[in-house]
Design brief:
- This protein has 314 residues and is α+β, with helices and mostly antiparallel strands.
- Among the domains are: 116 residues, ACT domain (Alpha-Beta Plaits, 2-Layer Sandwich), CATH 3.30.70.260; 89 residues, Alpha-Beta Plaits (2-Layer Sandwich).
- It is 41% helix and 23% strand.
- The protein is built from nine helices and eleven strands.
- A four-stranded antiparallel β-sheet has the order 2-3-1-4. Strands 6-7-9-8 form a four-stranded antiparallel β-sheet.
- α2 crosses α3.
Length: 314
């Protein structure tokens, strides 16, 4: 009769034991919960807010089965869905509009299992339900904001180099600057070309490009020399990608604060973002939080000051 070594039996038993341990959290189920978070991402919650939540629930005689307090949020568990809904109304009334109060589902798995890394299996929208958003970035004003910021930056550079011009403005999708001499125009063009090769028009540093970031055209009209500057297609695409990346990062930060397990936040197509939040019950509140977060807003900032750059014309 063939026999295996003892260590092989021990290894099999150990593997089975660990498998049973790590599958255990799935049998604890989930509890109805209310989650309290600051309105602004990155802010913290102090103990006084926790005491206010507890006292408001006690006055309303709403029983909870556990409260988890962290610096960024408070989670209160309830046995019944009716208690969860009533608690949300009571907490919103007591805290006002300084905090976000949302419905959620939280695992009942004990802390000691979580500390061992034994977490419940997270199910997708098809098995668990939740929220699915398909968001499209509003790029209609991107070109306008981009050119406004670029013009501020150009004015600053021309002023620094003491290059005289007497008019500058944004017309449609290009920037126009007028000079009194062709020499001043050529100097300005060289400065702008150098700027485009190593810096983003939003003020951030970027890699040098093999192709120029801008297309230049110049016109001589009597005694004035006009320089027209327009982004090329490569730069326009780069700016859209930059805006999309910023929104994805902001959405990730905000969704992480919701405590959603394994959310899906990814780009779809050129200017769309898909957000899936498994287990989220409060669709309206999730829409409010996500919608408030994913706003495309580009501003040109003077790196030497904390306020938005405002440079007068030379």
């Amino acid at each position: 009769m063939n026999q295996y070594s003892s260590w092989k039996y021990i290894l099999i038993l150990l593997t089975i034991g660990l498998s049973l341990l790590y599958v255990t959290p799935n049998f604890y189920g989930e509890s109805f919960a209310v989650q309290v978070m600051p309105v602004k991402a990155g802010e913290t919650i102090d103990r006084s807010t926790l005491k206010l939540v507890e006292s408001s629930l006690d006055k309303a005689k709403i029983q909870n089965i556990g409260i988890a307090f962290e610096d960024t949020d408070i989670k209160i568990k309830f046995k019944e869905a009716t208690d969860q809904l009533n608690a949300k109304q009571v907490i919103e009334k007591s805290l006002g509009n300084k905090f976000v109060v949302a419905l959620n589902l939280i695992s009942n798995s004990p802390d000691w299992l979580s500390n061992l890394g034994a977490l419940p299996m997270y199910l997708g929208l098809d098995l668990r339900g939740g929220v699915h958003f398909l968001m499209q970035l509003d790029l209609s004003k991107l070109s306008e904001k981009k050119n406004d910021g670029f013009l501020v930056n150009v004015r600053k550079e021309l002023q620094k180099e003491n290059i005289k011009y007497y008019d500058s403005k944004v017309i449609n999708n290009f920037v126009q600057i007028k000079f009194k001499s062709e020499d001043a125009l050529n100097q300005a063009k060289n400065i702008i070309r150098a700027q485009g090769s190593g810096r983003s028009i939003f003020g951030g540093k970027g890699p040098a490009k093999e192709t120029e970031a801008f297309n230049f055209s110049q016109i001589k009209n009597n005694n004035e020399f006009i320089l027209k500057i327009k982004n090329n297609q490569y730069t326009d695409e780069e700016n859209v990608n930059f805006a999309l990346k910023q929104n994805l990062e902001t959405l990730h930060n905000r969704v992480n604060e919701l405590g959603v397990a394994e959310p899906i936040i990814q780009q779809q197509g050129k200017d769309r973002i898909v957000v899936q939040l498994p287990g989220v019950q409060d669709t309206a509140k999730a829409k409010e939080i996500i919608g408030r977060t994913a706003i495309l807003e580009m501003r040109m900032v003077d790196e030497e000051r904390s306020d938005p750059a405002t440079i007068d014309k030379a």
